[in-house]
Write a structure and sequence with these properties.
Order of helices and strands: HHHEHHEEHHHHHHHHHH
Strand order of the largest sheet: 1-3-2
Helix content: 55-70%
Largest sheet: 3 strands, mixed
Number of domains: 1
Structural class: mainly alpha
Distance between the termini: 53 Å
Length: 292
């Protein structure tokens, strides 16, 4: 049995619920798209990319569907990174890592952007589980998930280089002390994925209870996704700094700087504009560099 098939067999398609509840959450997710799409351009600041995302299809998936999509995307990202596996053992380890990361996403994420097919994937079982776990209003929570996933799509539309660059960094075996801007280190990559994970939420804090009645309740219970945990699976075994718990806090501060300084467009300008770990510590240094 392939590693992927094993993880698929171990992943339930969704929780055991009455068909009515399953159908209801799918309906709410579909209804949430219009609400989310109307706010995408204003919140993201990228009108053209938001229009592209809203024009693309949205798929409602169970966990098996999400597992398949994530596995395919990870393989594609590594392919874009052009990081060859030199041995059979390395190929097996890489396939195992893909399957583990895909399983993590399928079991925990509520939405993802399929950058190959340009479509939003909303993972209905996880949306329902989180709504029940945190006592969230299902209508509001579905809208939140649709908007947050749409924002991630906008980012990938704005910066199509992200998958390859992040995969290269996650698999980089160069010393962490490398101070060049030519290639991301593992720690650089872990920080960037943390930033990308928290940025949609920080941009969405502009929503008021008039937009989303339970927005403050949502913010107090569910902020971030599973992206950072996934990138940590790809790091070479010799690299340990990416597990430092302070990374997430540093990334959150940097993402807040991007929002406060209206520098989100600078962040997505090019692969070279992406901050390195030392610049995440000193955001003004990064901003001076990218704005020249």
């Amino acid at each position: 049995m392939r590693t992927y098939d094993m993880y698929r067999a171990l992943t339930p398609a969704g929780p055991k619920v009455a068909p009515y509840h399953a159908q209801a959450i799918v309906s709410r997710l579909r209804e949430s798209l219009h609400w989310a799409n109307r706010r995408l351009a204003q919140i993201s600041g990228f009108e053209d990319e938001a229009a592209a995302v809203t024009s693309r299809p949205t798929r409602i998936a169970n966990r098996h569907g999400a597992l398949a999509v994530t596995y395919r995307l990870l393989a594609e990202a590594v392919s874009r990174a052009d990081v060859a596996a030199a041995s059979i053992g390395q190929r097996i380890r890489r396939e195992t890592t893909h399957a583990r990361a895909a399983s993590l996403v399928a079991n925990a994420a509520c939405g993802l952007w399929d950058f190959q097919r340009d479509e939003r994937i909303l993972i209905a079982p996880n949306v329902l589980v989180d709504a029940e776990r945190f006592a969230l209003d299902q209508k509001d929570w579905c809208r939140w998930v649709a908007l947050r996933t749409g924002l991630r799509g906008v980012y990938f539309e704005r910066a199509p280089f992200l998958p390859g660059v992040l995969a290269s960094g996650a698999l980089n075996s160069q010393p962490e002390e490398d101070d060049s801007l030519d290639a991301l280190t593992v720690t650089d990559t872990a920080l960037l994925v943390d930033i990308l994970d928290v940025l949609p939420t920080l941009q969405m804090t502009c929503l008021s209870p008039r937009d989303l009645p339970s927005v403050h309740w949502i913010l107090s219970h569910r902020l971030y996704g599973v992206g950072p945990a996934c990138v940590r699976l790809f790091a070479p075994a010799t690299q340990t700094s990416q597990t430092d718990p302070s990374l997430t806090l540093r990334a959150q501060r940097f993402a807040q700087f991007l929002v406060d300084q209206h520098a989100v467009a600078d962040f997505f300008a090019s692969p070279q504009a992406l901050p390195r770990a030392r610049e995440v510590e000193d955001p003004l240094r990064w901003l001076d560099r990218v704005r020249g």
